[in-house]
Amino acid sequence: MMTNQATGAANPVLAEFVRGNMVENRHRGAFCVVDQHGEIVAKAGDISALIYPRSAIKSLQALALFQSGAAEMFDLDDKDLALACASHLGEEFHVAGVSRFLEKIGLTAADLECGAHLPTNKAARKALLASGQQPSALHNNCSGKHAGMLAVAKALGVDTKGYIESEHPVQVLVRECVERVLNVQLTPDHCGRDGCSIPTWGAPLINFAQAFAKMSSGSNELPTVYANAGDRLFKAAASNAELVSGTGGFDTDAMNVFAGDLMLKIGAAGVFCGALRGRNWGFALKCDDGNMDAAHAIVAGLLSAIGGNSDEIENVLKTMKVQVSKNWRGFEVGHMQSASEIASYF
Amino acid sequence: MMTNQATGAANPVLAEFVRGNMVENRHRGAFCVVDQHGEIVAKAGDISALIYPRSAIKSLQALALFQSGAAEMFDLDDKDLALACASHLGEEFHVAGVSRFLEKIGLTAADLECGAHLPTNKAARKALLASGQQPSALHNNCSGKHAGMLAVAKALGVDTKGYIESEHPVQVLVRECVERVLNVQLTPDHCGRDGCSIPTWGAPLINFAQAFAKMSSGSNELPTVYANAGDRLFKAAASNAELVSGTGGFDTDAMNVFAGDLMLKIGAAGVFCGALRGRNWGFALKCDDGNMDAAHAIVAGLLSAIGGNSDEIENVLKTMKVQVSKNWRGFEVGHMQSASEIASYF
């Protein structure tokens, strides 16, 4: 039975903030690494508890681009697909890319229903503010995913209006695709609205890890169209990593240093999903309290604990495994770090 | 023995973020309520574990104003004392108040070593940015405490320079005062630097609750000067609540609606300390993961669970017990709430 437990045994501490010589804050969570057969390689905490994957599964939601025929109909290229999988930082090249995507499907930014927010990238934010312009839906970190969902609506031949609602044919198809690859029935009993207004469905953590392994390996447990699409989406994201996050983004830097071997995607409220393409391993993690700095430290600790990394990779992971905090005067006051115990779960 | 445990039994969930119809994030923590004799009225979690109190004990640190003779020497009034206990929002009246405080002791903003940051209050922040001015150390939420520490330096007849360092006579005296009222020896083994650059010392959660009860009751366990000072500081803070936080600040709103019966002070990384003046009860809480929204929900849940509140008080507490979250489109996507179990610990 799927449970969304609150009591029971607590998940272990996977990251902590150290101030001076004492731990100030503790971040508990669960993670799971599985091989291409879905067998557990490593796990910590309750991996059967339901989590909201949030933006970490944009690549699973993007399966609807293939299932609906939109990918072929609009001749979507790897850049379009990477943007469909992205939580981008709102830089000029992201905005231009999503504009181009919308143009391909004969729509505009006015059709996006994700809402507007300032670019997440600091330089892009400053530049936009200095220009006196207001942020548009194109700057929303989810605008690429929404362009993809609009493409699905066009391919299905339905009105695009209200494509963010769970009963709209677009979200019905997206849900079917995600259910198929997760091998879980998603129900309105465990459903919320995401920051960008589409539904997010609760499912067990382990199923997300298994889904990423299947997507990576083009598993024969999946219908051929899904298996092919999974492989193509992961390749597109990993080889256009700057579109998936952006300048200075951890997903981007990590995917780049792994040189195609890593598909990594952050989700709000402390989630990461990913796959090591060479081994066809999938993984998923959730920080119980939703802290993003902690989730960054945990995923870096996890990727490091998996082992076999070059010094170059370890150097990139190190910047996230230990994140130094400075105060208003510039004194180093503490650091977020992944728990050393992470390695012991392997 | 004082411990700073990481493993052992986990603290209970005291707040949770609900998205749609499922809990998305869980926030564990510990709290303790004691009577005027230091006896436990209610507790949850490990109350013997060390925590950093951060800004929640500015009123204890302000005892040094009395121990050094600074309060008398500079004829400090209730507004000065309230500012010394404050984490203010950087509004005009805070800046003016701290400027006046500094003038009284013959110093200026240039002597403050807290660093500068933009006002925490949104309107004040916008106004400052629109004026083209840079934020100064006066806008730092801790500037009142720092003015107080400069007053201590003057009363001690020592150079003010470096008053933020733990070996400086000011911090040595502040530490002695806090140790005395906490009844705990503070050691460099559990010490960090705070956001405003002064030391913060780790001590067991229960001792902070007991210290607040002693301060409130003018306990005869304290030297007379401390007992009198405690009473005066709490009265000054509770009756000048707008100086302690500011417009829309929870500490301010809560103290105002309790009409003098509540001393409440937030600390960074999920801490609250306070006292119910009528009963001379003290309390302290720490959210394990440092989440401030969760800490707000927990303290509101705690004040509500203590009981005996008017409808007017409950209405103010309700706004913090359940904090609604909206997304970029303005849809209500979820809410932070205090755990209903809080009442069961009483």
Automatic annotation (TrEMBL), chains A, B:
It comes from the Bacteria. This is Asparaginase.
